[in-house]
C-alpha cells in the first residue's frame, strides 16, 4: 500500500517516520522544505502539492493544525480532490469539528473517494513511540482497509462510529483534559502556597479521588521539572476548546466550565505561552501568588 502524508509537524513527523520504519512506501508533502529534504534523505518520496501527491498513493494521511488548513489541503485549488481517482482514501488524523469532517466526507464521496477521521491522543511521545490512542470514525470497510496503518501508528484503535465520530469523541476528551489540567494547576498552586510539598500532594492525590491523567502526566514530568517544551501546546488546546464551545452553541448545550477554562488558556496565550505545553497554564497562577510548584 502506498501512503501519502501531509503535515510533518510535531505530531506528523514522528508518525510518518514510523510508517517509513515499517517499510511502507511513503510520499510526503509539507510547506516546510527543510523537513521535506530530511524525509527524502531517509527514503521518502516528495510531492510539491497535495494534488500531485494524490496521483501516487492509495491512502492520504493528513495531520494538520486546524480545519481551515485541512479544507485547503483536501479541497483547495491544489488540493487532494483536484486529482483524486475513485478509490483513493483520505485519512484525516487532525482534530477538527465533526460537522466539518462530515462536509468534507460528502465532497469526497461525490468523487467516489473514501474519507475517514482518526484523531489521536498520546502527544508527541505517543507519536514517537507508536503508542497513540486512535479514535476512528468511518464506514467499517474503510476503517478495515486502513487498520494496518493505524496499528503501525497506535497501540489502541477504537472504532467509534460513522465519519465525524472520531473528531467528536476527541473533542469531548480534550475538553476534559483542559478542565482537568486547569484544576490541577489551581489545586497545586493553592497547596504549595499553604506549605504542602508538591511531591507529597502528588503521591496522596494520585491514589485518591482527585487523580487524573493531567495530574499524573503533566505535574511530575513538566511542572515539577520547570520544563514546558510541548507535548501538547496551549495554542492547540485553545483551538480544541473552541471546537467544543462552538459545537455546544450549535447544539444548545450549556458549557460553563468549558467557556471559563478557554479564557484561562487564552490568558496564557496573552502571556506569550501559546507554544508551550498545556501545563504552562500554571505559570500565570505562580506569578500571581509568588510561588513555584517545583519538586
Give a summary of the structure in a few sentences.
The chain has 295 residues and is of the alpha/beta class. 53% of the residues lie in helices and 14% in strands. Helix 1 runs parallel beside helix 6 (123-129), helix 8 (165-193) packs across helix 10 and helix 8 (165-193) crosses helix 12 (256-270).
Detail the topology: elements first, then pairings.
Layout: E1 2-6, H1 12-21, E2 25-29, H2 33-41, E3 45-46, H3 50-54, E4 59-62, H4 67-75, E5 89-92, H5 98-110, E6 114-117, E7 120-121, H6 123-129, E8 132-137, H7 140-153, E9 154-161, H8 165-193, H9 198-205, H10 213-223, H11 234-251, H12 256-270, H13 282-289
Parallel strand pairs: 1-2, 1-4, 2-3, 4-5, 5-6, 8-9
Antiparallel strand pairs: 7-8
Helix pairs in contact: 1-6, 8-10, 8-11, 8-12, 8-13, 11-12
Characterise this structure:
This protein is α/β, with parallel strands linked by helices and 295 residues long. It is 53% helix and 14% strand. The chain has 13 helices and 9 strands. It has helices spanning 12-21, 33-41, 50-54, 67-75, 98-110, 123-129, 140-153, 165-193, 198-205, 213-223, 234-251, 256-270, 282-289, and strands at residues 2-6, 25-29, 45-46, 59-62, 89-92, 114-117, 120-121, 132-137, 154-161. A 6-stranded parallel beta sheet has the order 3-2-1-4-5-6, with helices on both faces. The protein has a 3-stranded mixed beta sheet with strand order 7-8-9. Helix 7 links the parallel strand 8 (132-137) and strand 9. Helix 8 crosses helix 11. It is globular, with a radius of gyration of 20 Å. It starts with a strand and ends in a 6-residue tail after the last helix.
Amino acid at each position: 500500500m502506498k501512503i501519502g502524508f501531509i503535515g510533518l509537524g510535531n505530531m506528523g513527523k514522528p508518525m510518518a517516520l514510523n510508517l517509513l520504519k515499517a517499510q511502507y512506501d511513503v510520499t510526503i508533502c509539507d510547506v516546510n522544505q527543510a523537513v521535506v529534504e530530511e524525509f527524502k534523505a531517509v527514503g521518502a518520496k516528495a510531492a510539491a502539492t497535495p494534488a500531485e501527491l494524490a496521483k501516487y498513493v492509495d491512502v492520504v494521511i493528513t495531520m494538520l493544525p486546524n480545519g481551515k488548513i485541512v479544507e485547503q489541503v483536501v479541497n483547495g485549488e491544489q488540493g487532494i480532490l483536484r486529482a483524486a481517482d475513485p478509490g483513493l482514501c483520505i485519512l484525516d488524523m487532525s482534530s477538527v469539528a465533526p460537522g466539518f469532517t462530515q462536509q468534507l466526507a460528502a465532497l469526497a464521496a461525490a468523487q467516489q473517494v473514501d474519507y475517514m477521521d482518526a484523531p489521536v491522543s498520546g502527544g508527541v511521545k505517543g507519536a514517537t513511540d507508536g503508542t497513540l490512542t486512535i479514535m476512528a470514525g468511518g464506514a467499517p470497510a474503510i476503517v478495515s482497509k486502513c487498520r494496518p496503518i493505524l496499528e503501525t501508528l497506535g497501540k489502541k484503535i477504537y472504532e467509534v462510529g460513522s465519519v465525524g465520530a472520531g473528531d467528536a469523541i476527541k473533542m469531548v476528551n480534550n475538553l476534559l483534559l483542559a478542565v482537568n489540567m486547569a484544576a490541577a494547576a489551581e489545586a497545586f498552586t493553592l497547596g504549595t502556597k499553604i506549605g504542602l510539598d508538591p511531591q507529597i500532594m502528588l503521591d496522596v492525590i494520585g491514589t485518591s479521588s482527585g487523580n487524573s491523567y493531567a495530574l499524573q502526566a503533566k505535574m511530575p514530568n513538566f511542572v515539577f521539572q520547570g520544563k514546558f517544551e510541548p507535548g501538547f501546546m496551549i495554542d492547540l488546546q485553545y483551538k480544541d476548546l473552541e471546537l467544543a464551545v462552538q459545537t455546544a452553541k450549535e447544539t444548545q448545550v450549556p458549557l460553563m466550565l468549558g467557556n471559563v477554562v478557554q479564557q484561562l488558556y487564552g490568558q496564557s496565550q496573552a502571556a506569550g505561552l501559546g507554544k508551550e505545553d498545556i501545563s504552562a497554564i500554571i505559570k500565570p497562577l505562580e506569578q500571581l501568588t509568588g510561588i513555584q510548584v517545583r519538586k
